[in-house]
Design brief:
The protein is mainly alpha-helical and about 450 residues long. Among the domains are: about 65-190, no CATH class; about 335-450, Orthogonal Bundle (Cytochrome Bc1 Complex, Chain D, domain 2), CATH 1.10.760. The protein has 19 helices and 12 strands. Strands 1-5 form a two-stranded parallel ribbon. It is globular and about 65 Å long. The termini are far apart. The structure holds heme C (2 copies). One heme C binds next to helix 8, helix 13 and helix 15. One heme C binds near residues 361, 400, 411 and 423.
Length: about 450
Amino acid sequence: MRRMHVALAASVLTLAVPVGCRHLSTKGVPQNGAVRTQSNSFSDDIRANSSTALEEGQKIFRHDTFGDEYFWGDTLQLQRAIAGERHGGVGPGLTPRQALQLGLKVDVDHVPRIMGAAIRGGSASLDEVQTTLELLKADAVVGVKAFYDSGGLRPTRIGITCALCHSTVNDALTKGIGNRLDGWPNRDLDVGAIIALAPSVAPLEKALGLNADAIRKTLRSWGPGKYDAELIHDGKAFRPDGKSAATVLPAAFGLAGVNLHTYTGWGSITHWNAYVAVTQMHGRGRFFDPRLNDPAKFPVAQRTKMYDVRATPDQVTPKLAALHYYQMSMPAPTPPANSFDHAAADRGRSLFDGQAKCATCHVPPLFVEPGWPMHTAAEIGIDDFQAKRSPDERYRTTPLKGLFVRAKGGFYHDGRFATLDDVVNHYDEHFKLGLTASQKHDLVEYLKSL
Ligand code: HEC
Ligand code: HEC
């Protein structure tokens, strides 16, 4: 009996020693447990994978077109409208000033040094199409990638990346030119007006069964900071009240921990990434979502077979993992300390968690319900037009962190509430909260602090 105890204790010891030692120093320690060594190096693999995925994902988010230049370049010929007649394209061309007015942003880290100095000193002409072409060549226009067959300034194709709609810049050099802010929605960007510049909108005419004028009218109805990510599946260009059916561009930051994405909760981040890359950006790859194979709800997708796309070679699927990882890594930005009243925000927090009942849906610190965060239109007191355009026919609780960077263009999926005061008034009425004016003020200050 006694002997056995000793033997047991000894074997526990021999098992334990290599593990402890390996943490201090792996050199000179006999690695007698093959399984254990592997499990430790797998931890290293996880770390290495994390930093590679982050780096790769950032590149994809910022610069990858997924092959969509065949659509924006070969088919719509956007590069010809940008270059203008004088540079072998059509029309007057696009000057940097016009590009900035359309909300396009310029990454200062890619602006050639001489040009940066000239812009700062006011001597660079922002009214020359040539400057736009130089910026494109330097890969400085956020979310727009030009392709060249040979030397020279004239691009032969143009493609778009995720950053076009989901990044902006901090205006470090001048308005519209600065350092990248990935994940911040570009609420200045007039996507519709940019697409409407294209010499040809033939694929949209064909898909939607509308003539070019009607397509351009729809595109121009969106306005800055908006895009309609369901139009080419359901063909619903306008709401019943005649207003545009587009939604505001959402934040792509602060989404880790959140289940279900888009205003109407289409699916996970990676579902939506494939959806956008293939069906919206027109990148080339695989996309499958049988819910779109519905002739009543998604007649266009059903006709164009967008529910099961198998373009080869697949330039989307191999990028989804790293892209997903990068998106999960983007934190929500912190509002400047002087941008809200701290004492009022503290009082507002108590209201948010208590009397105003906000936290029942916007559960801190995610500000969205853990689980299935979906609500009917009636629950939140609005119409169901946009909800009905999605598979679950509900609205997803919007995560609220970093609200301060998406005030422009308004709140809720279509920006219907111009200010946070309007949002709070809506809830006060809908839920009969009976908030006083000063309570509403405190609640708004709290929202500004998130
Ligand atoms: C042309 C503009 C545009 C481009 C390009 C674009 N998106 Fe979006 N994105 C939108 C809009 C608009 C929505 C909201 C759609 C909705 O709710 O119906 C959205 C929604 C999202 C969401 C959901 C956000 C949330 O609150 O859950 C994520 C994540 C996202 N996009 C990531 C991407 C990625 C990654 C790419 C590149 C593969 C991309 N987007 C390309 C316009 C764009
Ligand atoms: C029943 C669940 C629910 C409750 C309770 C609730 N919300 Fe919401 N909230 C939502 C949903 C769903 C949306 C998305 C609506 C849309 O986009 O159309 C939303 C959107 C918002 C937005 C807009 C975010 C953006 O970026 O557009 C704000 C701000 C907000 N809620 C604040 C509040 C406050 C403050 C309260 C308490 C007074 C509250 N919510 C109570 C579900 C809820």
